[in-house]
Amino acid sequence: MKEIYEVIRSYVDEHKQPMLQLWEALVNTESGSRNLDGVAKVTDILRREMEDMGMRTRVIPMENAGGVLVGEWNWESGRAPLLFLGHMDTVFPDGTVEKNPFRVDEEGFAHGPGVLDMKPGLVIALYAIRALAAAGWKERPIKCIFAGDEENLHMFSNAKQAMQQEALGGLAAFNFETGYLDDNFVVGRKGGGPVRLTVHGVAAHSGNAPEKGRSAILEAARKVVELEACNDLEAGRLLNCGKITGGIGENTIPDQCVVQIGLRFNTSRQKEELLMALEKSAASCTVPDTWAEVDASRLMDCMDTTPGVEALFHHLKRTAQDCGYGPIGSFQVGGLSDSGLTVAVGIPTVCGMGVKGEGNHTPNERAEVASLYSRCVLAACAAATLEDSFAG
To answer: Where along the chain is the active site annotated (predicted)?
Structure first.
C-alpha cells in the first residue's frame, strides 16, 4: 500500500493551492441555516466541483431548508459504498463575512465563519476522492451526503429521513465534522434535541364559571414534576423542561399549555427510556377532561460506540500509522451531529474527520491550515485500504 499512499500524498501536496481557494470560496459564501439562498450557493459550488470530478450529483430539495446534496463517485462498482458525510450550513448570521472574512494568520490558522465547522471538511472529502482517482483506485463507490440544515438539527425539514435513506447499504461512513487539536477522533456522541409537550384543557371564565374549566397549566405543572424526576445526570440522561407557555390571563382557566423540553442521552437505550416516560406522561392525565400530545420528531440520534464504530476507528488508527500521519486517539463528546443518523441505521461511522481547530460557533473560530492537507491524505488512505471485512 505504500505506493498508493505516496501517490495520494503527492497529489495533495500538488493541489494545496486549489484546496485553499475552495475553502476560502466556501467560507466567504454565507450560509447560515436559515439563509436558504446562501446554502443553495454553497451547494452549487460543491456540485460543480463534484461534476468536474466526474461524480453523479443530485439535490434532494427541502421545502423549508437547504437541500441535501448527494454526489456519487465510481457508482458503477457493485460493492457497498463508503459514505462521506458533511453539512453546508453554519450558525452565523448574515453580514458576518464582511466583519470576519476568510484569512490565514501568521501562525498558520484560518479564520472566518464556518472556517472550522465545517466547510473545510467538505474540501477534504472532495479532494480525498480526487486523490484516489489520481492514484487509479476504484475498488468501491464513494457517496457524499451533505446536509443543508444540520446546525439547527434539521428542525424545519425531513433531511434526517432523507439522509438515512441515502445511507442505507453503506459499508461505513466518515463524517468530516470539526477535528480536534489533540488528534482525537470522535467515536461517540450524545443524542438529544427539542421535544414539545402540549397539554389541552377546557377554557372558562375564572370568575363566572370556574367549575366549567379544566386547567391545562395545572396538568402541565404536574407533568413537569413527574418528568424532571426521570433525570439521571450522572448517567448522562437529561430531560429539561426549559420553557412553559400557556393561558391568556389570570381571569381565564387555561385551555392549553406548551412545555418545551430539551433531551440529552448517551445511548439509544436512554433515548427509548426518556421517550417512554414522555409518552406515559402524555397518556395519563390527572386533571379530568385534559389530554396531552408529544412531538419528538426533531430529536437527533446519539452516536453509539458500537463494535462496528470501534472497528472502523482501529482501521483509521492503523492507517494513520502506516501512511505517516502519526498516532491518533478516540473519545466521546457531548455535541450532536449527523453521525448519529448513520450509526442508528447500522453503519459504522467515525466523526471529527475535518480540519483541526478550536472555537467553533464563536467569532474566534479558527482552523489549522496544515491539517487540511494531512487530514485529506489520511481520509484518502483510509478509504483506499478499507476492506469489506474491516469489522472482523
So the answer is: 89, 150 (proton acceptor)
Instruction: Answer yes or no: are the C-beta atoms of 257 and 219 closer than 8 Å.
Output: yes
CATH number, domain containing residue 379: 3.40.630.10
In this prediction, residue 1 carries a pLDDT of: 74
pLDDT over threshold 70, residue 391: no
**pLDDT higher than threshold 90 for residue 390:** no
Answer yes or no: do 102 and 11 share one domain: yes
Give kind and range of the element (H or E) at residue 260.
Answer: strand 256-265
Grid cell, residue 19, equals 484546496
Same domain as 144, residue 24: yes
Cell numbers for 346: 447500522
pTM: 0.92
Same structural domain for residues 185 and 195? no
Element (H, E) at 122: helix 119-134
Asked whether residue 110 falls in the same domain as residue 224, the answer is no
Q: Is residue 204 part of a domain?
A: yes
Number of independent structural domains in the chain? 2
Q: Which pLDDT does position 335 carry in this prediction?
A: 86
- Domain annotation covers residue 389: no
* Phi, psi dihedral angles at 110 (to 5 degrees): -95, 150
**Which CATH number fits the domain that encloses residue 259?**
3.30.70.360
Instruction: Report the chain's mean pLDDT, rounded to a whole number.
Output: 96
Which of 387, 383, 370 is closest to 323 using CA atoms? 383
Residues 315 and 382: beta-carbon distance below 8 Å: yes
Taking the C-alpha atoms of residue 267 and residue 246, their distance in angstroms, rounded to an integer, is 33
Nearest to 301 by CA among 347, 339, 251: 339
Q: Could you tell me the residue range of the domain that residue 291 belongs to?
A: 191-295
Average pLDDT of span 319-323: 97
Q: For the chain, what percent of residues have pLDDT higher than 90?
A: 97
In a domain, 392, yes or no: no
Return d(Cα 385, Cα 38) in angstroms, integer.
36
Which are the catalytic amino acids? 89, 150
> Can you tell me the distance from the alpha carbon of 137 to that of 144, in angstroms, rounded to the nearest whole number?
17
Per residue in 30-51, pLDDT (tens digit) is 999 999 999 999 999 999 999 9
Residue 251 C-beta-side C-alpha neighbours within 13 Å: 2
The answer to whether residue 81 scores a pLDDT higher than 50 is yes
Do the domain assignments include residue 137?
yes
Stretch 109-128: mean pLDDT? 98
